[in-house]
# Entry
Amino acid sequence: MKKRKYWFAIAFIMPALILYTVFIIAPVFCSTYYSFTAWDGIGSPRMNGIQNYITVFSQKDYWRVLFNTLRLVGASVFVQIPIATVLSFLLLRRTKGYKVFRTFYFIPVVVAPIAIGIMFSVFYNGDAGPINRILDMLHLPFLKRNWLSDVKVVVNSVIFPQIWQYIGYSLVIIFASMQSINHEMLESADIDGANSFQIFARIVVPMSWDAIVVAIILVVTGSLKSFDYSWALTQGGPGNASSFLAVFMYKTAFVQNKFGLGSSITVTIMIYSIALTILMKRLNRSG
Amino acid sequence: MGERMKRRRGNAGRLIKYGALGFLALVDFYPFFWVLMSSFKENIAILADPLALPHSFDFSSYLKAWRDVKIGVNFLNSVLYSASGVILILLLASMAAFVLTRVWQSKILYGYFTLGIMIPMHAVLIPTFIIMKELAIYNTRQGFVILITAANLSLAVFILTSFMKSIPMELDEAAYIDGCGYFKMFYKIALPMARPGLATIGTLALLNCWNEYLFAYIMLANEKIKTITQGIFALRGRYSTDYATLCAGLMIAIVPMMVFFVAFQEQVIGGMTAGAVKG
# Structure
């Protein structure tokens, strides 16, 4: 019997195990190995030590792209999360039809990021796009820009749709946690004469802090993966003015055929991602 | 004084509250509404006044996108990939989760599977590209399905394991006494009992498969097998000034998931937030 049990276990777990090992785990080790080689993807990789990392870190564009990515992280953490937190709170307090609101907020979340990117490429357009037209209507024509070609604003133009799309996502995560706060506690705070702001800052935010941190981790790791928006809107341009790390990695590996160099960028992304996750979890424990 | 003042403040507060909530709802919804309306307009009408509503509901842009630009082919491909991807993910992950919770409770193996949750997918992009070529499944339908399946397995195993853990062990023992083999236990007990978990994974996997772009972009080069996300991206390149067709193509890509979301809201939100624990 015992023998049959193990045969069954092996046969049943094997398909998942093989796929997962071959396409997810092995590639992580391959990436790390390639990152120490010079390789164009055709011949065989040739070891060249840490040369790729020296090249990566001495490229001005890498720092620019890293800075763009940090800007995206910053916007997500300091714009998206606060908006989502405040609106969750508004939704929490005796709001009629909160499910209807939640539905509206979540609609963008289920749409393909590449579709969102293409949509905004139309919105930003000077001829057919509604954005400049709406600014005209509001008598704010001085705010009009060439959203996707002006180097000064292009990063923000690419960041905005991502914030916009995922406010609802953060909101739903935070809202679910706020809903589980004991109602009597909020009621008694009301009776004690606490105002909404005090209730928000002293009770609701601290009590849903864990969920807020989860939402923060998600937007941060999501930012490090951001590819589709930038690719759909500007292909990272002009130059690398609106590239993020993933776009830069893609261009290096698949456009310039520098697989070794691309892999070393990949490794830096993995390190940032893991480091930030650990950092956030610390934040969680102390908070 | 108190009461009246308080009530007035309350009314103002409510106005601000519903105003803010309504404004965000509008901001979230209007862009899609604009694309929908534009898809019914003629291109000249969009250029003349982007904000105007269409005079009539003209579906010719949809026909053009579906047939002439062949978004239809992309659409059907994505239906095929998503359906097979979801089925494979559900099947393989529930088999693995069954073994991990009922047959061989290996902590090491469980840990190994959940490790993948932390790995950002594009970090494996370059090696998977090479591996797919080596295995001669680069630029094939089956290769792409295998890849999106692998990419979703880790989280699926993680979530399903926690569901299957909560199925009482006594059921297994009873089944065992009745002469049930593991295989029968799997599909007679574990699968039906884990149905909410399967629904969660299924919705999450469906969204991931349908919305996937980067893997498809790199792995599928043949026009006949490209996905809907590739289709609309190509549309933007070729028809960058034909906004009506572009909007129709966008709606074809967007509407299925939106309808799915509205129909299965609780599952979708549940699935997406179950994905949240992956942090």
Remarks:
- Residues 62 and 122 of chain B are 33 Å apart (CA to CA).
- Chain B touches chain A through 89 residues (CB under 8 Å).
- The two ends of chain B are 51 Å apart (CA to CA).
- Chain B has two domains: 2-39, 61-278.
